[in-house]
Amino acid sequence: MNIAILSRGAQLYSTQSLFKAGELRNHDVEIIDPTHCVLSIEDGEPKVHYLGDEIDDLHAIIPRIGASNTYFGSSVVRQFEAQGVFTTVSSESIITSRDKWTCFQLLSRARVPTPMTILGNNRDPEKLLEGWKSFPVIIKLLKGTHGQGVILAESRQSALSTLETLNSLGARYVLQEFIAESKGTDLRAIVVGGNVVAAMKRQSEDGDFRSNLHRGASAIPVKLDYKQEALAIRAAKTLGLGACGVDILPSQKGPLVLEINSTPGLEGIENTTGMDVARHFISYIERNKR
Ligand code: ADP
Ligand code: MG
Q1: Position 290 confidence tier, pLDDT thresholds 50, 70, 90
Q2: Residues with beta carbon inside 6 Å of ligand 1?
Q3: Are residues 127 and 152 in the same domain?
Q4: Can you give the CATH number for the domain in which 220 is found?
């Protein structure tokens, strides 16, 4: 099969891992930087040009669209979809999973448990906080990644000044209950084709409540229990993501879905678990595109 990995970083661990996994299975794999694609619609026909050549022979794509490239990157994915090319994550699911509130709304349709979260229209932070009873509170930018954009406000006063600052910057955010009992740990499950193929437990660096590996957290492999596994699979299905990372926060109320990532990093999970996660992406394509 002709498979393209849509990635801006040909040398990145995840891109390389997927590339090698595809080649090992004798596929023709190429890495396409989506930012260099030119999209056109000619006589109603969707076309993609890349570095001067038309690309019209792909069977499948593995999008690795970065948060700074959501609009154009998902547009490239949609163009390939219009050509009938199979994709591990749809253009729509890339967009909806990137916005934390939209993601929570979709999860709530399927009654997937998430931390208590509220969205206001940013106009009146004082009003928004009036109804909020428990502190500390988490304030989260809708489009943050790597733990940047997640703020822990200890009191109503610090929450108010933070919201006012965010308003002056025109940022969008949600308020979220702080799950203190998670103590800086969370679970990252990789779901591919409706199965959890690898999972790890991440523990934040001392003093940080954020367990992102980009923030220096450490990780160990885990086997999810039945409830956690079912939750991860349901979350991926609800968002319509064929291959993704699901973050789960353990809480007194049971496991809660924190976010879903359409472009999960493979380095941390493969090194932590020793699993060949990239191989699962390739076999998922093989199962779905004959
Ligand atoms: P990002 O997209 O930046 O990774 P997350 O929502 O996943 O944002 O939050 C980053 C980390 O912060 C999580 O992995 C978790 O460790 C911690 N965290 C986020 N929300 C909460 C919460 N409501 N209660 C406790 N810890 C949280
Ligand atoms: Mg996260």
Answers
A1: low
A2: 115, 138, 140, 144-147, 149-150, 176-179, 182, 184, 186, 209-212, 247, 258-259
A3: yes
A4: 3.30.470.20
